[in-house]
């Protein structure tokens, strides 16, 4: 999601020369030990002189140097936590931290995040487990340094999502909301989408609904809520959202197709209840059923005109007309007079519309037996027995 996507790293990428080090392992160990001794010394001085700004600045510089000499990303996290604590302590005490400490934190955060992004871009298609773990460490380091960066949380969630770890992606975004309840809609929308992907439809609907209330003009969010209702089998709610979307975005055919499909499912849902209860069909119920089918019919006819060679759309159209015709035929036995005649007439009309769609599908895919069987059924329903028998013989059915 432009609305579902969201950008920056560290010193381990620098060469030994940039760090002022040689390639000698002994010298590397010695340098690290020296920094640790300096850290211990300045920490002791701070214990004796708490709140000494110069000592705090010196400690921050030593921590940054230790981080620069720590090549494994996840081993830097505790160092960064100490550095972040220094800045927070000053803010609590003085209302702000020293610019020098802020700069150290900002530089480390930028480097950690940018290196994570670089690795993500480097292995866009197939990320190895090793790279995945390294990227996660970079972003977790960045969050430790700047726990209010929604950008970093989003990148971390994206990384988990790409790796198929939906629960970790969800937990990451939930952490970001704990830091900021006024999070950008894009973050919350991404979380709503992940809830839906993970099967937590109830949470997805709840979050999407609040987002729609806050951002009524955002079509992408409304479409997300419609998808959530579709997966929840709440066709009436989905129709309620999709219908104004089709009016607002007349050329976004995916909205129209989704609306037509939901109209059919709502029709089938209500028709199924009537058939199951085995009761007479009232005029009011009959009119509602007919109106839903007429609206869906109009949409499918329009789509057939603008997407004449779209096979998936042609299959959905063919299936709609065939299945609707069968349901209308059954419903006609529960109606009387003009209603029965209306159902039967629509049944015949839908079969006539189903025929060319199934013929085209069978012609283009003669190896697809499901298409052939469907075409035979339509031939039989239309009384085209010779065509049905000929097709059966051709496929030895």
Quick overview of this protein structure:
This protein is an all-alpha fold. It has helices at 16-19, 25-48, 53-68, 77-94, 99-122, 129-145, 150-162, 166-179, 185-198, 201-214, 219-231, 235-248, 253-277, 283-306, 311-331, 337-364, 369-381, 385-394. Among the domains are: 1-147, no CATH class; 235-350.
Which overall shape is indicated by the principal axes computed on the Cα atoms? elongated
Q: What percent of residues adopt helix (DSSP H or I)? A: over 70%
The percent range for strand residues is under 5%
Q: What's the order of the H and E elements? A: HHHHHHHHHHHHHHHHHH
Question: Average pLDDT, to the nearest integer?
Answer: 86
Overall structural class, as computed from helix and strand content, comes to: mainly alpha
Radius of gyration: 32 Å
Distance between the termini: 48 Å
Number of DSSP helical runs: 18
**Residue ranges: pLDDT <50 for 5 or more in a row?**
1-30
Give a count of the beta strands, DSSP E runs of length 2 or more: 0
Largest sheet, described in full? none
């Amino acid at each position: 999601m432009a609305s579902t996507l969201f950008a920056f790293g560290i010193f381990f990428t620098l060469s030994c020369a940039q760090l002022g080090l040689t390639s000698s392992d002994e010298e590397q160990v010695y340098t690290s030990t020296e920094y640790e001794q300096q850290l211990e010394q300045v920490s002791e001085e701070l214990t004796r002189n708490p709140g000494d700004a110069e000592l705090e600045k010196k400690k921050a510089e030593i921590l940054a140097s230790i981080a620069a000499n720590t090549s494994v990303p996840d081993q830097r996290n505790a160092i960064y936590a100490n550095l972040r604590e220094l800045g927070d302590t000053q803010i609590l005490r003085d209302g702000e931290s020293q610019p020098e400490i802020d700069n150290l934190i900002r530089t480390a955060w930028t480097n950690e995040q940018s290196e994570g992004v670089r690795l993500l871009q480097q292995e866009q298609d197939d990320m190895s487990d090793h790279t995945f773990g390294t990227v996660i460490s970079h972003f977790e380091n960045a969050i430790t340094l700047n726990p209010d960066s929604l950008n970093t949380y989003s990148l971390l969630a994206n990384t988990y999502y790409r790796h198929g770890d939906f629960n970790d992606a969800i937990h990451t975004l939930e952490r970001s909301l704990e830091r900021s309840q006024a999070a950008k809609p894009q973050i919350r929308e991404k979380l709503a989408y992940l809830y839906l992907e993970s099967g937590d439809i109830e949470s997805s609907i709840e979050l999407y609904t609040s987002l729609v209330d806050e951002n009524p003009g955002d079509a992408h969010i409304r479409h997300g809520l419609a998808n959530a209702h579709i997966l929840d089998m709440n066709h009436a709610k989905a129709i309620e959202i999709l219908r104004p979307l089709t009016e607002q975005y007349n050329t976004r055919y995916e909205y129209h197709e989704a609306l037509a499909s939901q109209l059919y499912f709502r029709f089938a849902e209500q028709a199924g209840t009537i058939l199951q209860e085995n009761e007479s069909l009232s005029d009011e119920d009959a009119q509602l059923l007919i109106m839903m089918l007429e609206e869906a019919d109009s949409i499918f006819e329009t789509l057939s005109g603008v997407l004449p060679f779209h096979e998936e759309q042609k299959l959905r159209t063919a299936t709609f007309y065939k299945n609707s015709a069968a349901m209308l035929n059954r419903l006609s036995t529960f109606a009387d007079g003009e209603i029965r005649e209306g159902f039967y007439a629509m049944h015949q009309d839908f079969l006539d519309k189903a025929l060319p769609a199934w013929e085209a599908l069978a012609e283009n895919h003669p190896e697809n037996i499901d298409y052939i069987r469907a075409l035979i059924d339509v031939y039989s329903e239309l009384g085209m027995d010779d065509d049905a028998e000929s097709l059966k013989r051709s496929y030895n059915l």
